[in-house]
Amino acid sequence: MTTVPVHIRQSNLFGSLSDDEVKEILASCRSVTLRSGQHACRQGEVGESMFVIASGRVSINLEEPGGGLRVLNHLKPGDHFGEMSLLVGGSRSANVTAVMDTELLELTRPVFERSLARVPGFAANLCRSLGEWLRGQISGGGRHERMHVAVVRGTKQMPNIGSQMAGLVAEQGGRIAVLSDQQPMHEVTNWQTIVPGEQAEQQLLAFLSSAVTTNQRTLVDIDQSLATPRVLAQHELVLWVVDGPQSLGYLSAVLSSAPEGLAQKIQLVELVEQQEELPPALELPEQLQQPSLAGPILRVEYIQSESSRACLVPRDLSRLIRTMRGIQLGLALGGGGARGIAHIGVLEVLEREGIFFDRIAGTSAGAIVAAAYAAGIQLPKVREVFEKEMTPPRAIRWLPKAPQWYMLSVFWLGLAERKFRRYLRKYSFDQLLLPAQTVTVDLITAEHRLRESGDVVSAVLQSINHPVFGAPILCNGEALVDGGVLMNLPVTALRQKHVDFSVAVDVSKQLAHEFAGNTPETPTKKMRRPGYFSTLLRVTDVELTNLAQLHGAQCDFLLAPDTAEFPFDDFTQAAGLVEAGRQSAEAELPRLRDALNRALAWDRSDSAATYSDPPRRVA
Question: Which GO terms describe its biological process (predicted)?
Fold first, then answer.
């Protein structure tokens, strides 16, 4: 290598060395060319060399125990990887895969050891680079995000989707270069239009090559007719937009002749028009069920404006941007009986402030709200589920313990399923707009169970099946009761899905120091003896409070509405509970915004980095 590329010359590994020292090391390196999808290193193999990225990009990924890959990081030109195996011995800790055509410089063990001995500055730079990486790991520092994403329109329904995405990126303070076959809806700083014709593919490839060299984030926005395997292979993610099974044919044809690994980059995005009832889940043809796509189908809602222009709803446009970046926000809603109504007040504030999530998990009452919210049911309608379906008729509310006896009758008479189906119909989890999980507990194995597939109402019924109110639900060798028995605040469920930032709402954190009219100051002779039913409910309160504290420690941000004055089993006080949720969210809103701004900051990514930035890699 006679001329040293600027991104290598200014990198952490070579930045402080003299030109002669850099050339001496690079002269001993071997050039390695990888096509998109090929591996530089494989997890578990013995490492005998390290690598420097000359051009292109790679991902650091782990093979999951249950199958599939978990992407840990992306590395850019000038970054290096693989040195840990040379320094400490042993096997590779992760896979390193080219996400586009990539050139590497390989330092074999002899070259590496000779460079350490002959060039002291090289050893010092390596130590400094490892120190920066370790500091990032300890502090939870940002990773390199996806830089090169394509939006392929497999439908004519929304030709302006790329423009909508670029507009929101700019609004959030991000910088992105766009190459599109459409004109932008509004002014976009760095927007280029493809010249149609035979040279379109070359124009796309040249655009990407230039962006990689200058470390720019890119969005390619094209009709499926321009989406050749060669172009798609140079992207880290392809958002393939469809609006039904009729728009899947071209994708099937592309993948039938595509190189191995391309399917894993493709995330299907299904456009769903906003309406009262969700359409059936999109059924994939057989040829699309064989390759492993990037993930489950991402359903996004749109509305048709007066100008006949289709626009994504704000919730789903923000989700699409985070999907592009490779970031997930998760929301965990805890159980607490009637106190779960407070979740609605929290969600009202978050929606008003434009704070949306990429997945949701719920336990018990939180499962009811999570399922309804994931189905796109409006919050006033979610409130109706509690006020109309879970409170006794006014004619009998005057009776002693009417709320408790009414709930007992709902469970004992099997009325709960009919009530929930009025809202959640026969939805399956793959119909939902938001990936959702509910929690239940199997008494046979004494383990929790996470539900994320199959019938939604059945999963909710299992999650709310409080042992005080009903017998276990017997199903497929399991005896299922309320998920709050083991996991009242389902942050663990989100962690297992590798969310980057989790918000939890604990409606059981506050517990009044009063039971059956007794307080800590009540003299023994004046204490009232509680009934059996009241004692069971109080035991539940104590259990939920302590479990929630245990699981709440795992989240990134905790909201805890003060619901202490509200009984566990009284669903007639919805107005007060919703207000408690609102007040909690309003009080914590500044802190939550600061935390989210740090988690989602665009200036932590490669698009705002210089070549002297620490590599922040995992390898």
Answer: lipid catabolic process
Helix (H, G, I), strand (E, B) or coil at 460: helix
Token code pair at residue 373: 């919210």
CB contact at 8 A, 15 and 66? no
* Longest Cα separation, the chain: 94
Question: Is the domain of 109 the same as that of 184?
Answer: no
Q: Which of 296, 419, 430, 329 is nearest to 368 (CA)?
A: 419
Mean pLDDT confidence for 461-484:
90
Residue 113 CA to residue 129 CA, distance in Å, equals 17
How would you class 266 by CB atoms within 10 Å of its CB: exposed for 0-12, middle for 13-18, buried for 19 or more?
buried
Same domain for 101 and 202, yes or no, is no
On average, the pLDDT of the chain sits at 87
d(C-alpha 390, C-alpha 400), whole Å:
17
Coil, helix or strand at residue 455: strand
- Distance separating alpha carbons of residues 500 and 497, to the nearest angstrom: 9
List for the chain the helix, strand, coil content (%; round to 5): 40, 20, 40
pLDDT at 591: 97
Residue 346 lies in a domain: yes
Q: Of residues 578 and 415, which shows the higher confidence score?
A: 578
Classify residue 129: in a domain, yes or no: yes
Task: Taking residues 417-443, report their average pLDDT.
Answer: 96
The radius of gyration computed from the CA coordinates of the chain, to the nearest angstrom, equals: 28
The catalytic residues are: 364, 482
Is 212 in the same domain as 177? yes
546 has a pLDDT exceeding 70: yes
Q: Where are the beta strands (DSSP E) in 42-195?
A: 49-55, 58-63, 69-75, 80-81, 95-98, 102-108, 148-153, 177-180, 191-193
**Is the residue at 522 inside a domain?**
no
- Specify whether the CB–CB gap between 482 and 466 falls below 8 A: yes
Tokens of 130: 């490892």
In this structure, is residue 529 part of a structural domain?
no
Q: How many CB atoms lie within 10 A of CB 383?
A: 20
- Residue 329 dihedral angles phi and psi, to the nearest 5°: -105, 135
What pLDDT, on the 0 to 100 scale, is given for residue 291?
A: 62
Q: Which pLDDT does position 410 carry in this prediction?
A: 76
Given 139, 166, 201, which residue is the final one in a domain? 139
216: CATH:
3.40.50
Task: Please give the tally of structural domains in the chain.
Answer: 3
Domain region containing 134: 6-139
- Tell which phi-psi region holds residue 16, choosing left (phi > 0), alpha (psi between -120 and 50) or beta: alpha
For the record, the structure tokens of 547 come out as 């479990």
Which pLDDT band, with edges at 50, 70 and 90, does 609 fall under?
A: very low
What is the spatial distance between Cα 128 and Cα 147, in angstroms, rounded to a whole number?
26
Please give the model's pTM, rounded to 2 decimal places: 0.85
CATH number for the domain spanning 56: value is: 2.60.120.10
